[in-house]
């Protein structure tokens, strides 16, 4: 009897994990970009796979590390890369969509104090079918153009 209760409890506790194993959506390689102290905004990147046979979309995200979380993309306007908010990020059936610097991203606006390199940024993704997916995104320093303080002099 006791054993059964324990097993049941354990199973219930593991249920969210089990659900993920067969989940319609999965996320790989999530990370958030570390920013210099005082900078209010950052972004998170990841690959999102729609394992289903129907098209879906990521419709919103939230995060414990920022006041506001938006879905963004970059577009070329008058020869300049500009960010703009998008209503959703389409996830075609069976496809993996990559959110990466210079393209689609989860914008983190109004970073909270604990946002620092080597911490984990917790994100919750919401999909058009009502599913939610919790994602842990390590905060990483990017060595590329996003962190170009060392190179500022070179363009002059
Ligand atoms: Cu953005």
Question: Could you explain the architecture of this structure?
Answer:
Helices cover 13% and strands 49% of the residues. 24% of the residues are buried. It is mainly beta. Strands 1, 2, 3, 4, 5, 6, 7, 8, 9 and 10 form a 10-stranded mixed sheet that branches. The chain has a single domain (24-142), classed as PCu(A)C copper chaperone (Immunoglobulin-like, Sandwich), CATH 2.60.40.1890. It has one helix at residues 2-21, and strands at 25-33, 41-50, 56-63, 66-77, 80-85, 89-91, 96-99, 105-111, 120-127, 132-140. It is globular. Bound molecules: copper (II) ion. Residues 43, 72, 83, 105, 107 line the site of copper (II) ion.
What distinguishing features does this structure have?
mainly beta; Immunoglobulin-like; ten-stranded mixed β-sheet; 1 helix; binds copper (II) ion
Bound molecules: copper (II) ion
Q: How much of the polypeptide forms β-strand, as a percent range?
A: over 45%
List segments where confidence is low: pLDDT < 50 over at least 5 consecutive residues: 146-156
Q: Determine the structural class based on helices, strands and strand pairing.
A: mainly beta
Total number of beta strands:
10
Number of contiguous helices: 1
Coarse shape? globular
The percent range for helix content is: 10-25%
Radius of gyration: 18 Å
Q: If you consult CATH, what is the topology?
A: Immunoglobulin-like
What would CATH call the architecture? Sandwich
Q: For the terminal residues, how far apart are their CA atoms?
A: 76 Å
Number of domains: 1
CATH superfamily: PCu(A)C copper chaperone
Q: Order of helices and strands, N to C?
A: HEEEEEEEEEE
> What's the CATH C level?
Mainly Beta
How can the largest sheet be summarized? 10 strands, mixed
* Overall average pLDDT: 86
